[in-house]
Amino acid sequence: MGLMDIKSGRDIPNEINVIIEIPMHGEPVKYEVNKDTGALFVDRFMTTAMFYPANYGYIPKTLSEDGDPVDVLVVTPVPLISGAVIPCRVVGMLKMTDEAGVDSKLLAVPTNKLTKMYENVKTYSDLPRHLLSSLEHFFQHYKDLEEGKWVKLNGWEGPEAAREEIMASVNRYTEE
């Protein structure tokens, strides 16, 4: 079985599968899984001296408003490797726009079956404020040195908005 065979989740939108592209605290390289082949490609080298403060990946078999699968930030106690699949539940969404349009990021934690560490985290505000600030700072500045690129943060929304985004993206994918 390859990455192309991975389902969106066991209980959409309550439990989702996230395919990790970029480990948290990794080198400043933007990796992207090719959605046709499942191969992991180097998308670009980040021009800012920054690292992702959480694992970064996507929900397979979804299509967000920007034409890519839905982006997800996964909070874990340790970095995950690129290509790993982790069952998660969403706790919020960082609303964003960039030079290409809407580019929101879902925020998720591992399911309770994987670890009880996050069982009391029901919404993004249950996570440490410093982590949320780090995520905001990263996405506000990670494109600063890339000509013609920009990001605007539009605030956090809770898990219900995140689940609505998941369902809309699954529907977009199936209609394509």
Automatic annotation (TrEMBL):
It is found in: Cytoplasm. One of its GO terms (cellular component) is cytoplasm. Mg(2+) 1 binds at D66, D71, D103. Its cofactor is Mg(2+). Mg(2+) 2 binds at D71. Keywords: Cytoplasm, Hydrolase, Magnesium, Metal-binding. Substrate binds at K30, R44, Y56, Y142. Its EC number is 3.6.1.1. GO terms for molecular function: inorganic diphosphate phosphatase activity; magnesium ion binding. It holds the Pfam family Pyrophosphatase. Homohexamer. This is Inorganic pyrophosphatase.
